[in-house]
Amino acid sequence: MSEQKEITIYDIAEKLKISAATVSRGLKGNTAISEKTRKKILDKAKEMGYRSNNFASNLRKNKTHTIGVLMHELNSTFMLSVLTGIEQVIGETDYDILIAHSAESGVKEVANAHNLFHKRVDGLIASLALDTPNLDHFEEFHKKNIPVIFFDRVEENNGGTKVIINNYKAGYDATKHLIDQGCKRIAHITGNLKRNVYNLRHKGYMAALQDHKIKLNEKLVFVNNLDRENCVQAAKQLLAMKQPPDGLFVTNDFSAAICMQIFKEAGVNVPADIAVVGFNNDAISSLIEPKLTTINYSGHNVGATAARVLINHLKGVIDITQTNTIVLNSELIVRDSSMKSL
Questions:
Q1: Residue 36's domain spans which residues?
Q2: How many structural domains is the chain composed of?
Q3: What is the pTM of this model?
Q4: I want to staple 86 with a disulfide (CB 3.0 to 4.6 A). Which of 151, 167, 228, 307 is the partner?
């Protein structure tokens, strides 16, 4: 089947025996054109299958009214809630969203950032992949004064606007809770320590141990990519120890749930034998049995905040070059998985 010719305003004008300028004004709802004529133009455009070329029009104005969103994953409740927050805010404006997904690959993140740049997005909202080496691939945005808002996984020492939580405090609070439950040998499973979220939660973990006179045991610390295979392996290694841990802080709810399952299959009681705390308050935290103690922070709020700051900058309401870091609240939600019988 041959491709149908794209209908233009000149085709509509020829059919209606009016000028192309009149058709253009009618399609835009210009009240200088009578309502009767506007209706004739709209009806004929629909009949002929006309599509407005907003992209070309926007390019002439050096704007595409498109916001790029670069996410490191799309398979977690948290990241989906971030996207919902972004969409809610952007949906109230005349901007569209273009989403790219790095799948935790720094190489793919670089390619996606480059692609979004050449798609001429007016602004970018981004969260870094686990192995992103640096931020060089965002430099082309800065050179063109295209605003970039980083969220959750960010470069702490990099200039630019960031939307985060106090990950150090959250890691400290999670560990202190286990200590308060009487835990003395607290294991820690976390992600790549090059990423701020895992690095700072790890530092919070270590600080809580130090403040409570518990010596850090490096054999109880596992740094991996938090996938199923690695967490199963880590859980089995913990159980095989001569002195297994009596507490476990995992920086991801899904990974914590995997560990709990391995413990239960081995006949280890959670929380009596090993108390467990996760992170993110993903849906699985309230579905697994026992329900998982976790750190809660609203992904929706993170996404909405990042989007709102970006839109306000684009509208000239604020200048993000004067706004470095926005820190949102988090809280420990205590559930059965960590409540030892003291």
A1: 9-52
A2: 3
A3: 0.81
A4: 307
